[in-house]
Amino acid sequence: MVFRRFVEIGRVVLVNYGKDRGKLGVIVDVVDHNRALVDGPLTGLARQTINWKSLTLTPFKVKIQHSSRTGVVRKAWEEAKITEQWQNTAWYKKLCARRNKQKLGDFDRFKVMIAKKRKSAMIHSQWKRLKSQQQ
User: Fold this and answer.
1) For 77-125, what is each residue's pLDDT tens digit?
2) Residue 50 in contact with residue 38, Cβ under 8 Å?
């Protein structure tokens, strides 16, 4: 197995635990084996140290120096068009779909269930018709 996402300065990460869950940031500095200094100037992620267990590495990287300031990180983020690249990934779309599903109320979930049943019934009836035509 060949790794393609390495922990490095400038690597874009996704926070998946805590109050900043779902926000993107950039690794600005590696503090130690357990933590990294992360900054997300355009995503609302304040500059802070975050545990590695709370981060997921993305395939994106910006070109910055070790311990760069927030303004430099913002400029590099905009030049690399990270936000647009992130919004075009299947990962982002899956997270949005999950978020939208969580927002549904009881009646909305009921309507989705009925729609799934109708779709399944239509597929099943067409499958039966095709099978009978083949015989």
Assistant:
1) 999 999 999 999 999 999 999 999 999 999 999 999 999 999 999 999 9
2) yes
pTM of the complete model: 0.79
- The whole-angstrom separation of Cα 8 and Cα 93 is 26
DSSP code per residue over the chain: --------TTEEEEE-SSTTTT-EEEEEEE-SSSEEEEEETTTTEEEEEEEGGGEEEEEEE----TT--HHHHHHHHHHHTHHHHHHTSHHHHHHHHHHHHHT--HHHHHHHHHHHHHHHHHHHHHHHHHHHHH-
- Asked if 49 and 35 count as a contact pair (C-beta separation under 8 A), the reply is yes
> Does CATH place domain 1-103 in 2.30.30.30?
yes
